[in-house]
From TrEMBL:
Recorded name of the encoding gene: dnaG
HAMAP family for this protein: DNA_primase_DnaG
SUPFAM superfamilies assigned: DNA primase core, Zinc beta-ribbon
Matching Pfam families: DnaB_bind, DnaG_DnaB_bind, DNAG_N, Toprim_2, Zn_ribbon_DnaG
Gene3D superfamilies linked to this entry: 3.40.1360.10, DNA primase, catalytic core, N-terminal domain, DNAb Helicase, Chain A, DnaG, RNA polymerase domain, helical bundle, Zinc finger, CHC2-type domain
Cofactor binding description: Binds 1 zinc ion per monomer.
Descriptive protein name: DNA primase
Amino acid sequence: MIPQTFIQDLLNRVDIVDVVGKYVQLKKGGANFMGLCPFHNEKSPSFTVSPTKQFYHCFGCGAHGTAIGFLIEYSGLGFVEAVKELAQNVGMTVPENDDKMPPAQRAETKAKSMALSEAMTRANDFYRQQLRGAQQAIAYLKKRGLTGEVAARFGIGYAPSSWDALRAAFPDYESNEALVEAGLVIERGEDDSPGRKRYDRFRDRIMFPIRNNKGQVIGFGGRVMDGGEPKYLNSPETPLFQKGSELYGLFEARQAIRDAEYVLVTEGYMDVVALAQMGFSQAVATLGTACTPMHVQKLLRQTDQVVFSFDGDAAGRRAARRALEACLPYIADNKTIRFLFLPKEHDPDSYVREFGTQAFERQIQDAMPLSQFLLNEVSTDLDLNTAEGRAKAQFAAKPMLQAMPPSALRLQIVRNLAQLTQSSPVEIEALFELKKPLTRAQRAPARVNRRPPVELERQIMRLLMAHPVLANEIDDVAVGMVGQSAPDGGVMLEQLVAAGRVLGEQASFALLTEQLRSHSADFDPLIAEVAAEPESELQAVRLELAGAIRQTKMKLLKAESDRLAAAGLPTEEAKARYRELLAQQEQLRRDAQIESDQQKSL
């Protein structure tokens, strides 16, 4: 049995848009992606994929689910096979045994993660505070043309030259293990010279905090201000930070990427910050490592157009080649990937300063399409007038074309390569063993009519399903009271709350739906309903949930007080209960007024 914790981690790493996009041609439509449903015949697209909910839903036939569910329905795989296929795509290994980690050990692991996150946040606050009094660092940033506003936006700071400057922010500097594990300090080994036990990793450097998609600081990049080496010093790999999956500036650039409808990928921290200063806020950078498939997936989740910007020297060409290879498995006809090569003496920052923003915009517009770059790469320095040169070009192109999924773009590249090497497209496809996609007719899931929950119960369940983290905030008394007015005693609500609590703080709509699979198909209509709704704000839902629970309590209290009044309050006990019920109703009204005021302030 695959541990539930592994399923949660897997669904957090895969992107359903990428998974579905391999089998269904998707187009962006607002916040979601649209396409023709693969589970029933249709001429107008009613199939939607939500990148925020990580869920697909067809308004035509009712098919819906997570990335795991899609592979099961589309490919006919079993649950375990679908999980293994997704895991392989993101470099995860499916554990063979059930998760038997004792609760105490699980709690310890969670506490360590929180300690690392807290250490990063406190260090970032310290570095930002130190920048205010570091005149040489401020002068350097001003020389690079940065304003205080942009520096604040990216959270730029300064690490003092002292060997243990962080001691001022961490009174437990010598014993805090999180400082070592987070890569903020380096601990000397037993064989090192006596004296200082620990020392700061970052000293006398401009500090660039690296944030994850939630805006949390997970690492740092430190840049020297003089000619020292290394020019950039990055945080080491930690449980919070993996260079191959993170992009500098992506958190800050998300809105700008949507507005510009493309993302510009550069080679360094200063490129990103300087370009933002000059109006190109849609720039991001890899973190001192080559572009990886995980980077490409993240970029294509944000936009359909990616422009890689590299220096025109040999190192820039090598970096571009690695980026090309990382992109090939994710090529799609609705995606555009281009490569911008600046003159050898320029990086994006210096180019904009010398030639201006309009000239740089023209460079972006004229960037080389991926198809052209691929053909250039396989044919450079070869004599295509000879059979040997043409054979070498085909030899170099074969693994690249094999890495691409079947698409119209791949067909166009095959045709261009065939023309370049005096072959036919059919010969190229046969020689390269390019397989066409295998499709299989799928039947739409059966539509089942079930008795729906009552109105208030349904509203509460919808809210908890959209934001299952709220299951930890609803008490058992409230669940029981809602269940009193439910046709089945609130069994579904109890199952929903229990499933949300099991997931804990990592709970999400997609994870919850996988958890509910083991309970009952009765949740399908509710899941479909929530899947079709737009994304909602957690705080607004929290208040709406409290209001729905309060209405349920009010309904039950009023029904009981009406029964007592109708009976004439025959005993002192009945009279006391009646007064108690009226007081509780009045308290609920006051609570309603308070929450109404809070909603107005949102």
